[in-house]
Write a structure and sequence with these properties.
The complex is a heterodimer of chains A (about 280) and B (about 260).
Chain A: H1 16-33, H2 36-57, H3 66-78, H4 81-113, H5 115-128, H6 137-144, H7 148-172, H8 176-184, H9 189-226, H10 232-241, H11 245-274
Helix pairs in contact in A: 3-11, 4-5, 4-7, 4-9, 4-10, 6-7, 7-9, 8-9, 9-10, 9-11, 10-11
Chain B: E1 9-17, E2 28-37, E3 42-46, H1 53-61, E4 68-73, E5 76-77, E6 85-88, H2 101-105, H3 107-111, H4 116-129, H5 145-157, E7 163-167, H6 175-192, E8 195-200, H7 203-209, E9 212-216, E10 224-229, H8 243-263
Parallel strand pairs in B: 3-8, 3-9, 6-7, 7-8
Antiparallel strand pairs in B: 1-2, 1-4, 4-5, 9-10
Helix pairs in contact in B: 4-5, 7-8
Classes of the chains: A mainly alpha (about 280), B alpha/beta (about 260).
């Protein structure tokens, strides 16, 4: 990371670090600020469309209008029930996502950098990445019970392969000249790994993590539908039994909104702290 | 010009071929390649695209290992990449995009364990030498093509190598920038007295820069066909007396070679 240090300069030029900070802020503003209104209008438009379609073509029990869902949501917020579902789902997602990424990124770096490691672990990667996490639900519950461990393990699993493969692709994409330059500038293989391979791969790792975040949301719902008595997945599945479509829609809206917010936050982190590591979007 | 004995960089009977499946002896890219460079000289290796110039550089840099012959620098055999030989690549993808230009230049000293203050001072000095003072905090992505090549040059100089290996470093630049950088390179060479091995396929560039020009034969199994000393006074201009004759002479040599090749 670019530690902005003050060089001992005495000339009258404007100090470069402040210029860089200014540029960075401008870039952030351009990305987040100027299109903010359009963004909000787009969301508002979607709610209007939802209202029109649901009240024109459907019975309220089949497709509740935004107002109905909103009223029910206020009720659930007041009883704190919704907070509980959101909190527990988020906790499961984040725990699994963080642990999965923390395992997969170093593993992907090693597999990408060291041929022997790649040869040993490649069959497992290629085999398990085609087995969706939901297929593991029953065995995992049998082995680890229906507690939090099972759900977190399932999310670790779903995170791992996406981050791992993206990281490996990142390592494979490092221009050979970068590593050659480092070697002839005196970098030992270990130093080259930390000073070139790792930073050059970072954009790929972050992109893999963003994708994995989406899969974690999908997976937590599946896990909670089958083996849980809390969480947004449980809320959606359990409401089905009572034909409480308004609550189902609360669950759906919460999932989408949480996903959108976490993704925005992730993008913000990438732009704020890692833009110079490589172009991302 | 300082002319010491021509045994600073020596390639003797060097051969190289990329391993190919189902062949005991790989097809030769280079065969019987001989070269002897003097310390402090600016040597240009000239030849048509695909003749194996970059292979020679990769062997000298230690990125590749010869399949035959010997390579020595200052009496010591070349084995693998080393800090005594620094490479300026044609493509700027060799710069570290996540480091500011000053940190790119300070990379070599950093690997050698030089403390931050000292290596930054060294980096600043060399950025100044390549006329990039004021650009210390820019990332490579924020610099123009010519500036990036300057960063590359500063980066290798900051590591104080015995020889600079330059692989068509100005090949991807626009004509004006290229001309300026050629002049500046001669200037830097004059100031630092570094030995420079410079690859190009541009005859005018070679005549402008070199003490001696080594013309390669067309591949495969390429070798050095002839070495031509360039005795034109410096600083040289494309319009300098003798420049055109020199250009014609080398061009004739290359065309002659191409003609012979197409006959056989």
């Amino acid at each position: 990371m670019s530690v902005v240090e003050k060089p001992p300069r005495v000339d009258a030029l404007p100090s470069p670090p402040s210029v860089i900070a200014q540029r960075r802020r401008a870039r952030l503003r351009a990305m987040l600020g100027s299109e903010y209104l359009l963004y909000a209008a787009s969301i508002a438009g979607m709610i209007v469309l939802w209202h029109v379609v649901s009240t024109t073509f459907f019975k309220p029990q089949f497709f509740p209008s935004p107002a109905v869902v909103f009223t029910a949501a206020v009720e659930m917020l007041r009883s704190r029930e919704l907070f509980e579902h959101i909190g527990i789902s988020l906790q499961r997602i984040l725990t699994g996502f963080v642990l999965g990424s923390a395992f997969a990124a170093p593993m992907g770096l090693l597999m990408g950098s060291i041929r022997k490691v790649r040869v040993i672990f490649d069959p497992y990667t290629q085999f398990f990445r085609f087995v969706p996490s939901i297929a593991w639900l029953t065995p995992v519950v049998l082995w680890f019970g229906i507690g939090e461990v099972s759900k977190v393990l399932i999310i670790i699993y779903t995170t791992t392969f996406i981050v791992l493969i993206n990281t490996m692709v990142g390592v494979a994409n490092i221009p050979p000249n970068k590593l050659r330059a480092a070697a002839s500038l005196g970098a030992t293989p270990v130093k080259a790994f930390f000073h070139v391979t790792l930073p050059a791969t970072l954009p790929f790792i972050l992109t893999g993590m963003r994708l994995a975040m989406g899969n974690s949301f999908a997976t937590v719902v599946a896990a909670e539908m089958i083996a849980a008595d809390t969480g947004l997945g449980y809320l959606i599945f359990n409401s089905r039994l009572w034909m409480a479509t308004d609550k189902i829609f609360i669950g759906i809206v919460c999932l989408g909104a949480l996903g959108l917010i976490t993704d925005r936050f992730f993008r913000y982190l990438i732009v704020r702290f890692a833009h110079q590591y490589g172009p991302i979007e | 010009m300082r002319l010491t004995s021509p045994d600073f960089l020596v390639a003797r009977d060097v051969g190289f071929g990329y391993p190919a499946k189902g062949r005991a002896t790989p097809p030769a890219v280079l065969a019987g390649f001989d070269l002897a460079m003097t310390e402090g000289e600016l040597f240009c290796l000239l030849g048509p695209s695909g003749c194996g110039k970059t292979t020679v550089l990769n062997l000298l840099a230690g990125f590749l290992t010869p399949t035959g012959g010997t390579l020595t620098l200052d009496g010591r055999p070349i084995a693998g990449p080393g800090v005594d030989r620094a490479v300026v690549f044609q493509s700027d993808d060799s710069l570290f995009g996540w480091l500011r230009s000053i940190d790119n230049v300070a990379f070599g000293p950093r690997m050698a364990g030089v403390p931050r203050d000292r290596r930054n001072a060294v980096a600043r000095e060399y950025l100044k030498l390549v006329h990039l003072d004021g650009q210390e905090d820019k990332y490579p992505g924020e610099l123009s093509g010519g500036m990036k090549q300057r960063v590359q040059i500063a980066r290798v100089l900051a590591n104080d190598p015995k020889i600079l290996l330059m692989d068509e470093p100005f090949g991807a630049l626009d004509a004006q920038t290229r001309t300026r950088l050629q002049d500046e390179l001669v200037d830097i060479w004059g100031k630092t007295r570094k030995t420079i091995f410079f690859i190009t396929h541009d005859i005018a560039e070679a005549v402008l820069l070199a003490d001696r020009i080594g013309v390669m034969t067309q591949g495969p199994a390429a070798r050095l066909r002839e070495i031509i000393p360039v005795t034109l006074a410096r600083p040289r201009r494309r319009g300098s007396p003798g420049f055109g004759e020199m250009w014609e002479r080398i061009n004739a040599l290359i065309e002659d070679d191409a003609a012979t090749e197409s006959l056989t």
